[in-house]
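Hi R.,

Here are the chain sequences for the assembly we discussed:
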Amino acid sequence: MATKINPGLVDELLAYGAEDVSKCFNCGNCSAVCVHSEAPFVLPRRPMHALQLGAESKLQGSLEPWLCYYCGECSEQCPKGAEPAETMMSMRRWLTAKYDFTGISRLFYRSWKWELFIIILAAIATGVGFTLFGMSQGSINSYDGPNAFLPSSKIHVFDWAMAGLLVVLLGVNAGRMWRFFTKAGGVKASLSSYLASLPALPVHFFAQPKYRECDRKRPWAVHLALMLSYVTMLVLVMFFLGELASGPEIDWRVHVFGYLASAGLIGAVVWNLRGRLRRDSAQHTHSHESDWIFLILLLIVAVTGVLQHVLHRSGLDAAANVTYVVHLMAVVPMLVLEVPFGKWAHMAYRPLAVYFAQVQLHAEAEAVEAEAAAEAKRAQPLASS
Amino acid sequence: MSARKIGVYVCQCGGNIGDYVDVDRVVEAIAKEPGVEVARTAMFTCSDSTQQEIITDAQERGLDGLVVASCSPKLHTYTFRDVARRAGMNPFQYTQVNVREQCSWTHTDDHAGATEKALRLVRAGVNRTRLTDPLESIVVETTPKSLVVGGGIAGLRAALGLAEVGLSVFLVEKKERLGGWVSGFKEMYPHGRNGGELVAGLESAVRAHPGITVFTNAELIAKSGSFGNYQATLAVQGEQLETIQVDVGSIVVTTGFDTYQPDEGEFGFGQDGVVTIAEFKQMVEAADGPLKYKGRPVKTLAYVYCVGSRQPEYEEGANTYCSRYCCNAGAHAALQVEALPGKVHQYHFYRDMRTYGTFELLYSEALEKGSAYIKYPDQEPPVIERDQASGRVTVTARDLLSEGEEFELEVDLVVLMTGMVPRENEGLTKALKLPVGQSGFFNEIHPKLRPVETVVDGVYIAGCCQAPRNLSESVQSGLAAVTQSAAILKRGTAELDPLVATVDLDVCEWCGACQDTCPYDAISLDQHAGKEVAVIAKTACKGCGGCVPVCPANAIDLQGYTDAQIRSMIDGMLGVSCA
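And here is the predicted structure of the full complex:
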């Protein structure tokens, strides 16, 4: 069956930031310099060309955009200035929107004004909600103890509810991603292929070993610091919120992780913000509005988190409580809106894509083996006769 | 003993000859031939130092014949004729012997055999040289007028150029109006100039020039005379048809091209929604709003390249050549469409993008403005289908740059990038005896070194009658023909090789056999000593020798290649010196 061309695809991707794709004349220099371009995954050339032609179904099922970590070398080597790295980035935005069944992603990526408006709306709702809640059951002058404004035991329940919502949203979208991949990619893999490739999922979620293969190591190191800090903080909040917030004494066994993670988060965000402001590398040359929102939100979360802790330790409980509310005003939109619908979603899709890629390779190897076995079987009667 | 004093120079050509032929042995043997005054080897005979050595030998020893045994006469005949002239010898008493292409290169596995063959070839050359007479170039007085056939851009510019160097010019155009294809073009690349205005400017300059006479509705129907002095007969359709004869020294043919007309069904041609680039250009240039086809808006557009060009060799009458302009024209049209209001998605189904030179910029711009390019396989042209019920047109093709994946595109219009084909010019071809190449276009003598000259002396070709070209290339070749014409006509005289056929009038008993065989109309009937004889116009004869063997009385000989010389060469090859 011939692939139907959607002539409007490039125009659609323009809204996601693919400004220069039309300049591409298909020389393939980008794929020649990319360490991740290895058959059957050819990047950036193949998705670039699919986009240029308007091969929408093909692009929609493509894993290739996720196999790129945006080192930017292809854009530096591109003789036409087609910015393959940034084009791949815009494809990831477009794919995120395609996977998302709610349509919120699409709205956010195509209009930063809407994104900001809804984030602010969510922040205000969160602020009002927690203030009313705090006033109804505690005192603004009390950070912990029986009269705490925002007692950790209650916040804890709220955290788990939010996590549950997140898992549902991302899970449904990941399922859609899998369907595009198997349908458009025409990949038929056995259960054993899915099981055998499973270890790839946590490995690539936590450590991004493929990112490390890029020629430039620093972005990977910074990303790893950010990722580990984030995960550490997540574990602390989800399982040790009580220890983190309570008591007149600091529980060093928990807090040392908290301090390290906070330093890691703030350091990595500042490094990225500085890079983007200075446009110091190909990776930081193009900044979409969603990139800024992502970094600034994270910075607010990290700084207010540290600040409310410092204020509380300094005995300024009222100020600590106010800061805590501000902290939650950033955390909630970040976790409920940015993680499933924005740039943060790559946290799920990229390791999934690496996993699916391994499944595909495994399935192809299996098919080759099966073919060889069948061949041997056909040859056997001949040999014996 | 021979009275001749011949110098023989056997070249080693670096190692090209010397590695396979024992040149010293050849020289040693040839030195003993009668009439050979001096025989030497040289590393490179064509080098300045060896040329000087030949001149010194000639002056010191009084040489009157020269044999150079080296490469093909195609390479250095004129070099050594000039050496002979500078050495005080007659240039036509020099013989070129080919011991490279026809000896050392062909017998690399047999050194002894190659040496023996070289010796025989050189001996044949010496034998021929021994029988040479001094000959003088034929000097022809030329008519300082030129005829340009075809009033397109190349012809107009050539006519003006000829007039500007002071020649009288007759410009003949078959159609009613001058200007050809370009007069119908609007904005052109790269300067955005309007083709019609460009031609109009040129035409008014041509018409205003006192040295140019323009004939429209006119054709060249016959040509007589010989090099430098042709009589051309023109048929001019005025109120009534009249013929005019003009005397000219040169003829410049700029009759242009025709566009390829696809067969019914070829690439979907003939169906609603499929047009040629020529038709499409008119549509685009006439558009005063969003692009429309038969009143319907065009939102998606497909260009299909190589229609009527680069057809497979095995097809009968295939146009195997590249028409060269179509890739550029496609990119240009895409940009014109882009400039119209409204968004049009443009897809180009191509085989190779040959936007050479600065046209690469045009292609880049078309790309940047959103044109998408699909590279279809040579043997699998796109399939263009129209659903009769819905009227939808689809183009289906495989894209080689997508691992051969097949794509289907629904379009509002398909533009066939039809190539250039040679015009039907049978009358002119016959009248001028113009050589036609395999592709049907007129042929030059040498594509690089003699790009506008034809085998008919004084008849030049330029523009698209010779090959597909763009405007500036056509004009360049037209001006090259101007230069070539000026070179023979401005001096007032021109020189021709004296290697032509001659008739022994005492022996000739007119039978007409020679006249029938002559491809150049050089032989005519005349009276001599009370009988009918054949006379040969020296300026028309090309020295092909075709008439020599057909003469029953053996009255014809070819200067420089007389029967006696040919026989002596055969003897030389058989090992006889025949001194």
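Chain B has a mean pLDDT of 95. Chain B has four domains: 6-135, 145-256+423-493, 260-419, 501-559.

Let me know if anything looks off.

Best,
T.
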